[in-house]
Amino acid sequence: MISEKTIERIIRYRRILKEVGPEHRTHIFSHQLAEMAHCNAAQVRRDLMLLGIAGSPAKGYLIGDIIGDISGFLDGEAEQRASLCGIGNLGRAILAYFVKSSPNIKLAAAFDRNPAKTNQTLFGCRTYPVDRFSEIVKKRGISIGIITVPAESAQQIADMMTTSGIKGIINFAPTLLKVPSWVCIEQLDVNMYLEKVAYFARQSNEKQRPMQNKRSIRRMR
Amino acid sequence: MISEKTIERIIRYRRILKEVGPEHRTHIFSHQLAEMAHCNAAQVRRDLMLLGIAGSPAKGYLIGDIIGDISGFLDGEAEQRASLCGIGNLGRAILAYFVKSSPNIKLAAAFDRNPAKTNQTLFGCRTYPVDRFSEIVKKRGISIGIITVPAESAQQIADMMTTSGIKGIINFAPTLLKVPSWVCIEQLDVNMYLEKVAYFARQSNEKQRPMQNKRSIRRMR
DNA sequence: TAGATTGTTAATCGATTAACAATC
DNA sequence: TAGATTGTTAATCGATTAACAATC
After folding, report:
1. Which of A75, A81, A124, B169 is the most exposed place for a label (fewest CB within 10 A)?
2. Does the C-beta of B5 come within 7 A of strand C?
3. If you measure CA to C1', which residue is closest to nucleotide D8?
């Protein structure tokens, strides 16, 4: 079984290699890829080995091989379809920003509760009222859901998605959602990250001050 | 030293407890908080112990205590200020969506290269041309930077931020950024998460089909 | 050959979880 | 007391990394 972290790295390898090559260079060494992916060379070799990609001690790995084999591993035969619930500022931004970037994933439908926002085409994506979610998802073979509704209604939307057959969810609402075990969920809690970065930023600031301040005393007890 | 994962959980505990109490209830047991935070009860007890929060075997932990002590730990004496670079769809969404939600963090300034977008007030936030970044950051004591520019210019913006004294960065551009070791960086690579969820969604779909298909053969070698 | 990298194993590291005496 | 939870340690688990013989 391949771990989530490994999948994340593999996705990064492909993007990195698509950016550097193959027009600039044909081969790459594990330590070079490791540096670009912010990881360890042995880890890169292990990941590639896992995918059945072999390199040679003299020339390293063929970039075209890696891209091809990773694509064979990650992408299915058909394109995958995603849906989005909540056409607010954030929903619109995701439609505009990410719709183009993953060639094998298509944002096929967007949903909102507000009739003023539905039955239009927004950034190339058709919009529908939420109560047609299940119908559209089944008809169009959509397997991915993106949640950009407010925190209060996020769990309800997630439940609707899982009962409609959605298998993977990305949640931008600042609530931890409960989903059945067979559904893959990625909780992108921007507020949490903001507070986390704020904490470490302050720590970094305080390191430069003398030891005896409120914070360091507190942490010492 | 407190690990990043622990900080993430602590941030979640506070938000969860602010939602449930203290108007509804005054005390909570570790296993109850653990269930809401999607983690282990022993982990909750260890995290709270780390912050010096004690509970009693009879009544559990006092919710007001936890919220207060976590706030004392996470928040500084003064509010922290954040800046945002790149007033596109995503930047605007973040201004609109997250500006209000963290009471101790204030989005104090937004920056863009395009003069048509600057010297305005957007969702209560003043906008400036990028070349005034360093000046404004120093003048207003801003320590956090949010990057919502396209991938091509993200590293350049990150460099500008670190040389201006920014100590924590949230990066939404789909590029891994290099920053000095004293800068805390959180890379929110939405495209990566999209591809990751797509991979697991497809896996989950294929589990229901008979074993002998292209994908499972590939994974077996 | 000499020098570097690959493929792979073993060691290390850190985080999670099980377990239990002490406590209410 | 009996039953449940806390505070804390030890065991487990998994991921990362160091190391090295085989290879080019």
Report:
1. A124
2. yes
3. B46
